[in-house]
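Design a sequence for this backbone.
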């Protein structure tokens, strides 16, 4: 009899939990629908009423902070966000939301402290490093790149830090790391608008490196950087004909072959392994069409993809049916 009672009690508890979770999701969806229509005031009302029924529901509180931020009720959003980051169950998103509020209020010092606190709790959070760097960059703080590089090292499969670092290096005549990080980001976020922007930057950085001859890696740049530069420089002969997609593919093909004959075992690097796999699959030329032509000659790329539909379909299957990740330990900046 006691077993039956315990079973019924457990069943009731599970039902209540399931009902609560379902109700919370319904409230979230209603609020998001209001936000999507620009009606942030009603989203706030729905979420506040929801928190009366489900006090301390973390997901509802996060959505309320977001809705208040969209409504530009920054003082109320800040009060809730600070309290949320102090909860034991606070997650990375709680710190991101609070950071957005501090940025909106232009409270830079407080925002710095917030990101430091968040990274102390979540030391492998790529998004927090990325947003901390963006805060510093917006305030012309040269330490922004340190945040992005630390983020790449701590969370190598998060794309945002590669994007920001590639932009940074493209502006300070560091084409090796601009083009490496740009291509990594493109493969991680291949369908995003930012990836299309990165394709243009990638081509520009190859131009900077191979035709303008205005770059030499310094002594402090590390052996990896120097060796990448040297092999690219040795392969750069076709650039004398002018740099376009065809000559760039010739240079990059030679680079991959030479890299693995000399340094592949010493410096395992996912990007170069990815390029070699495309070569071995007979898809490297198609990959470079997608990588460069789509950014510098979209009409030509559209024509090529129509005329080479079977090859382009194979390439899409290769690129889009897998997740591109950089393994931990393959960090070679200044090494």
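Sequence:
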């Amino acid at each position: 009899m006691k077993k039956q009672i315990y079973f019924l009690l457990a069943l009731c508890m599970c039902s209540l939990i399931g009902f609560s979770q379902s109700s919370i999701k319904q409230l979230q969806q209603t609020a998001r629908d209001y936000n999507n229509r620009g009606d942030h005031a009603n989203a706030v009302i729905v979420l506040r009423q929801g928190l009366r029924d489900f006090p301390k529901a973390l997901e509802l509180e996060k959505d309320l902070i977001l809705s208040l931020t969209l409504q530009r009720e920054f003082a109320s959003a800040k009060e809730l966000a600070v309290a949320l980051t102090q909860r034991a169950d606070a997650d990375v998103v709680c710190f991101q939301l609070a950071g957005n509020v501090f940025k909106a209020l232009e409270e830079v010092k407080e925002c710095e402290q917030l990101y430091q606190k968040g990274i102390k709790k979540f030391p492998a959070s790529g998004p927090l490093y990325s947003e901390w760097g963006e805060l510093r960059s917006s305030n012309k703080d040269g330490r922004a790149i340190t945040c992005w590089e630390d983020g790449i090292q701590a969370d190598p499969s998060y794309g945002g830090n590669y994007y920001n670092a590639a932009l940074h290096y493209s502006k300070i005549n560091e084409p090796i790391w601009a083009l490496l990080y740009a291509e990594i980001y493109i493969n991680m976020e291949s369908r995003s608008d930012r990836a299309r922007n990165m394709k243009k930057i990638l081509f520009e950085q190859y131009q900077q490196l191979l035709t303008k001859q205005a770059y030499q890696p310094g002594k402090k740049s590390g052996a990896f950087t120097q060796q990448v530069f040297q092999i690219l420089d040795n392969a750069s002969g076709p650039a004398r004909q002018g740099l376009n997609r065809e000559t760039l593919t010739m240079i990059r093909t030679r680079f991959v072959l030479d890299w693995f004959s000399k340094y592949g075992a010493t410096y395992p690097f996912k990007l170069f392994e990815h390029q070699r796999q495309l070569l071995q699959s007979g898809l490297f030329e198609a990959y470079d069409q997608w990588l460069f032509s789509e950014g510098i000659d979209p009409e030509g790329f559209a024509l090529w993809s129509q005329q080479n539909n079977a090859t382009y379909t194979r390439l899409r299957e290769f690129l889009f049916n897998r997740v591109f990740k950089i393994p931990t330990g393959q960090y070679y900046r200044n090494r």
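The longest helix spans residues 2-36.
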